[in-house]
Amino acid sequence: MDALPRTESRRVAALCLPATLENAHRVRACCTGLLAAWGVPAGDALVVLAELLANAAEHGGEEMAVRLCHRADRLEVEVVDTGSSGRPLPAAPGPAARGGVEAWGDVEGLRGRGLPMVSVLSERFVLRRGSDGSTRALALVRTGAARRIPSPDRGLTLVGA
What we know:
- InterPro entries: Anti-sigma-factor_SerPK (IPR050267), HATPase_C_sf (IPR036890), HATPase_dom (IPR003594).
- It comes from Kitasatospora terrestris.
- This protein is α+β, with helices and mostly antiparallel strands.
- It has 3 helices and 8 strands.
- Strands 1-2-3-7-6-8 form a 6-stranded mixed β-sheet, covered by helices on one side. It has a two-stranded antiparallel ribbon with strand order 4-5.
């Protein structure tokens, strides 16, 4: 008798809640425990999750949905919001403090670095804007021992209106 093919294990957690900064903090704390229970190193995954939650809470309308899916050595982090008054884009590249090298955001400013940071920490990052104003952010984060070293020319992919 032939053995059945081995299937890759998959763990999924999802929830929908009002889009507030307080709830973003609560979800991050809850996911810290969840990832620990799954045996997943939290590091980059929690930074990515926190940035996407903060964007949804600050710019994304009334509700946000969060989904985590862990398979093998990768974690999908997905955050969807219900609509926004503005497109969540990183700050425009500007000259860095030295040498005229291009850098994201204003070196003196405090904002506009979240999405480029998510892009660097993720193996893949896609932002989709729905015709209804909603935003879907999906990041694939490597959680295993072999971690990719990001290249400085990596950008994020923007899809939609």
